[in-house]
## 1
Amino acid sequence: MAVGTILRTVKQAMWLGWKVETNWADPLVFAIYYLIRPVAGLLIVGFIFLIGSVVSGTVDSGLFTYLFIGNSFFIYVVQVMMTMTMLIHEDRAHYEVLKHIYLAPGSLSWYIVGRALNGVMNASVSLLLSLGLGVAIFQYGLGINIPINWLGIDWGILGLGLLFGIICFMGMGFILCGITIMTSKVQFTLPEYVSGILYLFGGVVFLPEILPSWGQHISNALPVTYFLNIVRFSFLHQANLDVQMNLLLLIVTVIATVLIGLAVFKVAMFRARRNGLIDKKEEY
Amino acid sequence: MMMRENVLLNMRAAYARLWVRIKGGNREPQWLIAETIIPIITLSAYIFLYKMVKAPPEYSGFVIIGGTMMAFWSNVLWNMSAQFYWEKEVGNLEVYLVAPISRMAILLGMALGGFVNTTLRAVAVFIAGMYIFQVPFAIYEPLTALLIFFLTIGALYALGMMFASLFMLYGREAWHTANLLQEPIQFLSGTYYPTTSQVVPFMVQLLSSLIPLTFGLDGIRKVAILGLGISDVWPNIVALAVFTLVLLPLARQALRFMENLGKKEGRLTLRWQ
């Protein structure tokens, strides 16, 4: 497919995704909506940490920062998983437009990439707002020291981590798209399963060393673990973290995830067309 | 219509809706499995977080009780409050509205059916959480625990009935509002930690006291984990009873008001909003 057609498909899909996500509310309500959920999520884990620490007698600001960065950046996983799973259901069963998109000259895969990129854009807005409010609440409101030098962020490392991380989450999203198109009524639970497992084993809010040994093996196999290690390094520059090795492991796991994702999606689309599932009706 | 006939008709309507809810809620085995496993995954992450900071084991119990009760809140939110939005999308809402029955009977059926379904899942989450994390429970007054539990459920479903009136009118806003009432309510009601802790700011405690779930969770934790009795939790019992008594008539009024508004604005049968 010509590069121009691909770019146009991605751009239109992003625009469509933005409209679908935002045109139910005025910009202020939308901004509040995109702020409240991630901030509330951060407050939940922040208060669990604080209350638990106060009871046990020590508040470790290093561990809090670990949790703060991990939970804030995990929004990308949640948003991409949710967007890519729901769009198949919504476009096929709710708005009944998937068949038209499938017939259009642009590729469905690039359309999905465009919708996922819109999810990334929304996640970035939520991330910035929750980082800002998180610092305001925890550092200035509750007096917890968050040892981040905001002017010393390693943007190169952060950019690389984000780039590979987002590609990886899209790869996972393609697996979910493939499963969703072959099934029905799993669109709500599927992304929750996946993001829940990644949240538990990916070293998001607690150190993977706390997990039992089998859990640590799972953690070591997940790209999200390396993604968050790299993101944390770009903020904290920990001397004990081998960022090059983490980057290498992230790239390896990203390649594996993307290859599996595209294969699953291709097989699913082939079977969906053969079994007449592309315009399958559900409850609407 | 005679009052007795009217009551019987509404009870039959409630039973019919209850039957659909139980049948519909359990016909997809993957939902049953998902609704048990997903909360355990999330709860596990919070329990490991408590373990990382070396909090006492009863805090793991707080998380398990919070997660169990959260199943009921999710049910109230998605399968009762937001249900009128789904019914509108699939074309059932107008059928309810033209039937000679009270909207409250429909909602009562949904509530009872949802309660049965959610109890199955909540018990599974509770037992799995207890077994996996070996949480120490100290229940000396099980009847008090049950009383607080049922009062909490009553207050939550009354709140759900009130929200249902809003969801009757709105489209995607309803979906997003239901989404919005998840994490913020978990945060404010202290689903995974005691809001009475000195760490929680006064303003947050004040806001949390507007949510019935806060009193329910606090009461159940005191009785089930800290081994306290009715003499320690009577304020929770009074608060929950007041919530139920206030919210139920408010829900009835709100439903009537929103239905009339919907009729005037022609939004009761509007799809794809």
## 2
Amino acid sequence: MRRTMIEVRNLSKSFGDVHAVRNVSFSAPDGLITGLLGPNGAGKSTTMRMITSILEPDSGAAFVDGHNALADPVAAQTRLGVLPDARGLYPRLTARENVRYFGRLRGLHGPELEAEIERLIDLLDMKAFAGRRTEGFSSGQRVKVAIARALVHRPQNVMLDEPTTGLDVMSTRAMRAFIRKLREEGRCVLFSSHIMQEVAALCDHIVIIARGEIVARGTPDEIRQQTGRPDLEDAFVDLIVEVTGSTEGLA
Amino acid sequence: MSALNLIWIVARKEIVDNLRDRRSVGNALFTVLLNPLLFILLFGILGRTFSEKAEQALVLPVQGAENAPSLIAFLEQNNVEIEDAPAAAEAAVRSGEVDLVLIIPEGYGEAFTSGQPAPVTLLVDDTNQGASVSVSRARRLLERYSSQIGSLRLLARGISPTVVNPLLIQEEDVGVENEGAETLSLLPTVMLAAAFLGGYYLAADVTAGERERNSLEPLLVNPVPRWQIVLGKYIATFLFTLLATVLATLTYAGLLALPQLQSLIGLRVALSTETIVGALLLVLPVVFMAVALELFIASFAKSFKEAQTYVTYLSLAGFMPAVFLSVLPIQTQTWMMLIPSISQTMLLRNLTRGEGLAPGLVALATVLTLAVGVAALIATIRLYNRERIVLGSAS
């Protein structure tokens, strides 16, 4: 058994009358890619925001390496690298400076920090624009900078909220390769998407969420078995329609 | 990683970020530096317009001018326009048609040449406030003429005129009507305007602006306690506001020392180094408080624009009392020390007039102002510890 690195237990969260997340439990272990799959508005980002200590759960709890995200946010956040849904950069700082700022906030400095920044610039193919101010960057360039600053401290646990949204085909392929590389390094990767093919292509373990609730979970094979559908895409659509009664929010 | 380190990392990033925003920095500095010039010109020219009234020729209706040609000549030399008095002189004065009338009777010449007191009559209406400047000018001129003639007569008899002047009365006007003091008490307006306006755009930018650009959530997922992030943002805004306040004060002092400006506004005043340093120390707590209040209010706003609007209102509320109190001749009272920014206005006024500062009042004003600042800062940190800071004001 691998040790679980990101875990949520009976997580619930409401905004007014809207139950954004209802009694959600799952875990994402080390060395695997766990996909959080669901239509837009299913509660994926809200769940992730409770893991990053940005939102307070109404009930239940989120843990990173065993540290409660609500009770001890600094300890949980230290072990986590996050690409949130909000991925704004500082437009008047260069790409490199954006990454450096977050590196410093993570306690890195000096040659060690600079070396890590250059490594990420290399890895994410950012050389051409690393020295430019981020104002006017394409969405692909923006995501790369946002990922570099999220991973500058080499976190063991990585959480990516819809990392391929707005990317062109080439960037999407590069992003998938990058996520696989994180798995090869033995990290715990939790990523969310509303695109079934993407999750199917990448994930070892899938958690399907709709209307704030988990509707299915398991490996891609297990999900095919559960639904009796040989095609994952069909299985996903069936599950969503079953719960929500419509295909609204599906890409 | 120490808290101080993290606070400074945040502050330094905000400073660099802000310095690169050339347009905003330029605009803010331009406003802050232009304000002193505007205030001096506005109040200086207004002040001169009032004082010019005294310099205008005094129109003096005279009855029987032909009886005293030398007195009339003296008056005309002294910027008095002699005109014929209306027929019904008393009624004209009572109705306010004329401010005053000088009556020189026929017996004047005879009495004058024989060395007797020569009678003249000033018809005035004491209840007519508007006439008081004219009346006192006319009275002063008549007294001067009288004493000049008296001195000449004594000299003619070989007696020194000083014998009949046992007192040497010197009058110095040091009251609020003194023009120099009027302009000097613009200092509170200049300084408080800078304290409240010097960094307001930055306060809005680092709070509502950061959220609007979607970089607040990525910032907050870093393992940095929120109070340290707030303090970092606070320090950056504080330093810029302080810089703006110092620059505005020095600009104001420098402008007052310019001869061209002095002659334009018709007065000659200067601020000593001690006064400038003392004034900055008095205003320092206001800067501390203003920045904290601006950050707090801007953190509530849904957008950068909204934040700017709120903070502009706050700034106006912060320094408008200084504008009014600079112009109105109100005495310093203890209760005023309870209201930050009003207290500093009064203290600065006392300081520039060289009236001396009561240490107790300074301490009271300073402590209360700092307390408001600390409360606002704590409230801002609390706000940043709640999840609504990321969600906006939605929930």
## 3
Amino acid sequence: MSEAIHIHPREVGHEVHHGDGHGHHHQSFITKYIFSTDHKMIAKQFLITGMIWAIVGGLFSVLFRLQLGYPGQTFPILETVFGSKAEGGLIKPEFYYSLVTMHGTILVFFVLTAGLSGTFANLLIPLQVGARDMASPFLNMLSYWFFWLAGIVMLSSLFIQTGPASGGWTMYPPLSALRQAGDGSKLGADLWLVSMALFIVSSLMGGLNYIATILNMRTKGMSMTRLPLTIWALFFTAVLGVLSFPVLLSGAILLLFDRNLGTSFYLSDIVVNGQILPNEGGSAILYQHLFWFLGHPEVYIILLPAMGMVSEILSVNSRKPIFGYMAMLGSLFAIAILAFLVWAHHMFVTGLNPFLGSVFVLLTLLIAVPSAIKVFNWLTTLWRGNIRFTPGALFSIGFVSLFISGGLTGIFLGNSTIDIHLHDTIFVVAHFHIVMGVASMFGMFAGIYHWFPKMYGRYLNSTLAYIHFWVTIIGAYLIFWPMHYQGLAGIPRRYLEKSMWLSFNQFADLDKMITIVSIIVFAVQLMFVFNFFYSIFKGRKVTTTNPWGANTLEWTTPVNPGHGNWEGEIPEVHRWAYDYGKDGREFIPQTEPIGANESKH
Amino acid sequence: MALGFIITFQIAKASEYVAVMRGIEKSRKQTNKVNAFLLLVFLIAGMIGVYYCNERLKGKILGAPASDHGVHIDTMLYITISITGIVFVITQVILFWFSFKYQESDKRKAYYYPHNNKLELIWTVIPAIALTVLVGFGIFYWFKITGEAPKDAMVVEITGSQFKWEFRYPGKDKILGKKYYKQIDDAANNPLGQLWDDPANHDDIYVSGEPMHLVINKPVKLVIGAKDVIHDVGLPHFRMKMDAVPGTPTTMWFTPTKTTKQMREETNNPAFMFEISCDQMCGRGHYTMRGEIIVETQEEYDAWILGKKPKYYAAFPDKDPSAPKADTSKAAAVQPVAMK
């Protein structure tokens, strides 16, 4: 199969390789399932690892929701599991902050970056551009294993005496830099930084590979404007990652230096626990600039793949072309550019120069324009369609709904005047959970339900899928919608108990309700995980190569494609991916040549 | 819960078998109708839910702002809520209505409609205009709020550390004396690291463990700092907020427009207090880092500050003129404040 990778597919893909060993060469368990270089297997590795992390991260949120809904109540089981960190079954503040920090870190990086892009970029890029594998399968394998290593380092920090990092997922120094400032700033913070450095290496290797594959390994006829929007979205995601993750790496390394080598990049004029530190001249705000220069693009690294998949799935299931392909592409591009120019909107109240602040207001609210275009185009895609509500389609519709709700609250926060009041309140928590967390999760679920047949040759149980969808979307709104009101009341984030506050103690019932709903939603996610693993082995078998009646290339491969994807030649592409309902035909695959009498679009 | 899982799973499995027996296609179409209907129900129930949630909770958010900037911020908030609210309702209704209306039907064929430049132009321009309005208002208020404090503003310094707030008033010279963090020494009565060489420090008044006092309708400029990690001075009733960064002092100013007493009457809550919350994660006691503010009349404030002695005298008791001859010095200390 290696030849397929070295030979330029556009020139040769059609002449040689009549199955010269694809799929038949013998593979041991280790090369097939562990150190695999097959992009499909690597995608599954990313997905399953991501799912395990999602369970851990989700469980953490249930634990700290217990504290928020039932402050001061004891849960003896917690002491059994977590020992001294939950002495007497009470969640101690330091433990609470560890849970919050790990929840954020795990979900943002391990689940919604690695789990989402890692899975679908690996699975879909070669299959949808018509390549036998990634540009560098070996680098691709390394990318997964660096991610795995990052995970192991992070996991180990959960078990050390002083506990994992607890300064919030943003890890702002000086809190994260000073061991004296809290238990989570001791060894846990070093492990967090090392893990993050490894993660960035993984993400870079993956990203470069995705870009190289998309640019160089498209099959004959697959011009850039014939690419499905999933691929475009994954392409911009990879570009964002490659350009912004190194900046976070520098931020993390400098923080490691400050912690361990006595440098003063972020430290100045500090007296902590009565101890006067020698560091002078550093700037704590510098870290925030470095962090958010990644941190904001990161939001789009999480969101864009979901947008791409939703565009594809909505089009397939409404049996209509995606409306305004070029506008969708242009808006992806605009979002990718603007993603780099808005980072300081996270820093309106750090003492930032107000004029600079106003520039960032303008650029931030500008993002609403391409976002609005996308929403209107999705709506028009549904208009006069013939919609099949597959689980993938439902999650896509849910994505659009959540993206609207969460996107609109972004207009509040991006406007610095309102941000003064809402900054670092629960309003922010509600906003980004809806627009980035839950919406992207919905995109991920949509992708899993849609491409599971391609991954495992079986279907997920659809009754469980529908229960999963309905409980999750109702639950997501019940959890996060009322949180906006807590934020409007000014309640700061990361307050584990509000009883001592005169202005913030009026929501006890609401907090209980939210906690109960989050437990239910979490249970339903476990049900999904069960459905996933059960269906891998026992799901209803896929009997046709193209179960959804879709146009893209992945559905021209065998039901269970081997290493190398296509048994014969790589098919040639003659049209864009969205000829649904054209000239009275339900769908026209990309591989079909343009007919003589075919109408133009 | 485990039981619930098992039951759900069995039902799900059974329904799959039934579907296979009855014909996948037929049962799929039936499920499609159910889901389409549920989407419509979700829209209606959701909109009722949004209304109900607002009815239940709108009384629990802060009420009228207690500062001039707060009024601007609330105005901006309501402008944004109206515009985004309209967009929210329209787009969600369209989303779920289209989903319901264009559910799969044997009678309809999907309409091939790949693009329409005119439409796309319209929905690029309309959001752009709406956003220009929001940016315009936003920046207008932003510069009002973040502009220079008025010259006659009183100055108060606020310093955060794990997990408390300390205040310093500049005294009769209206100048906060210089400080240097290496001079911080609680034992030597110098919790803020004031440089005693600087005469401006000699009359600075240090306040801790009690509320900050401010004067109604008098602009106040807060000079904000932190000793150890980043904190944030959050003033929810005044709608103000600014980080406290070690090594980089920040400022913010506003004019309180309601006294604590007035707020107590308005809210019917005799225990009402303006609160200072720490809004930036600062360690294990973050959620307990609470401060209080009392807004009062000039006379009440004068009376309060009269009872305060500069920290300088605590550090150097021999310099305290009030120690040997209390009466005269007190009068001297009061005068400048009362003159204002």
